[in-house]
């Protein structure tokens, strides 16, 4: 009997972390996504009040790359913790009809906003600064844009690069150089 319990426990521990649930809109839902009125000025103010960075996360129903991110990347405990601690994530539907109010005051459906911002792929993640200049759009103000699905290392590095405001540093280390350095450090075993 004890052998059976030990085996069952080992099997349970080997199962992957559950993927995000699909909502009625066909998009993945995670606990760290915020349900807002999608007025980006209000979302930015709320993110700032919580000491977090606003992130706009575009997905679409049936997106195999979104599924990959939610099943293989976002369940990583360190990445999940980073997102929960440092980011205020608002999900948008590439083909959705929910109204979104941009920083410039224009209100459009999600799908029309995606067209305005020239977004073509899902997933696409826009990282916003703490303040947006008057008249700027979210796409113009974004400090980084991550178009497409990437692995845990690249995704973690992008979220870390933004959280640490490395885009502001004048040290010649853009994201690609930062990411290359982090890959080397991980392969050397000198960092997590």
Mean pLDDT: 90
CATH superfamily of the domain at 18-150: Glutaredoxin
Which percent range describes the beta-strand content? 15-25%
Subunit organisation of the chains = single chain
* Outline type: globular
Major sheet strand order: 3-5-4-8-9
CATH class descriptor of the domain at 18-150: Alpha Beta
What CATH architecture label of the domain at 18-150 applies?
Answer: 3-Layer(aba) Sandwich
Number of strands: 9
Question: Which parts are unreliable, with pLDDT below 50 for 5 consecutive residues or more?
Answer: 4-17
- Determine the number of helices (DSSP H or I, runs of at least 4 residues): 8
**First-residue to last-residue Cα separation:** 39 Å
Q: From the alpha-carbon coordinates, what is the Rg to the nearest angstrom? A: 18 Å
CATH fold group of the domain at 18-150: Glutaredoxin
Main β sheet profile: 5 strands, mixed
Q: Specify the helix fraction band.
A: 40-55%
Order of helices and strands: HEEEHEHHEEEHEHEHH
Overall structural class, as computed from helix and strand content, comes to alpha/beta
Task: Kindly describe this structure.
This protein has a domain at 18-150: Glutaredoxin. α4 (77-86) packs parallel to α7 (152-163) and α7 crosses α8. Residues 4-17 have low confidence and may be disordered. Helices cover 42% and strands 18% of the residues. It has 8 helices and 9 strands. A hairpin with a 5-residue loop joins β1 and β2 (28-29). The longest helix is centred in the C-terminal third of the chain and has 14 residues, at 175-188. It has 192 residues and is an alpha/beta fold. It has helices spanning 2-14, 40-49, 64-73, 77-86, 110-116, 138-141, 152-163, 175-188, and strands at 21-22, 28-29, 33-34, 53-59, 87-93, 99-101, 107-109, 124-127, 144-147. The strands form 3 sheets. The chain has a 5-stranded mixed sheet. A two-stranded antiparallel ribbon has the order 1-2.
């Amino acid at each position: 009997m004890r052998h059976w319990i030990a085996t069952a426990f080992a099997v349970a521990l080997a199962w992957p972390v559950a993927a995000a649930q699909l909502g009625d809109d066909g998009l993945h839902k995670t606990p760290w996504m915020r349900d807002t009125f999608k007025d980006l000025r209000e979302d930015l103010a709320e993110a700032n009040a919580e000491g977090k960075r606003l992130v706009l996360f575009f997905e679409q129903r049936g997106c195999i790359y979104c599924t990959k991110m939610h099943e293989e990347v976002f369940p990583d405990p360190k990445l999940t913790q980073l997102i929960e601690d440092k980011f205020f994530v608002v999900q948008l539907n590439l083909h959705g009809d929910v109204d979104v109010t941009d920083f410039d005051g224009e209100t459009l459906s999600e799908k029309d906003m995606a067209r305005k911002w020239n977004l073509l792929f899902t997933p696409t993640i826009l990282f916003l600064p703490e303040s947006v200049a008057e008249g700027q759009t979210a796409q113009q103000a974004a400090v980084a844009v991550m178009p497409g699905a990437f692995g845990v290392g690249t995704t973690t590095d992008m979220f870390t690069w933004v959280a640490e405001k490395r885009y502001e540093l004048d040290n010649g280390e853009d994201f690609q150089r930062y990411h290359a350095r982090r890959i080397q450090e991980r392969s050397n075993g000198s960092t997590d």
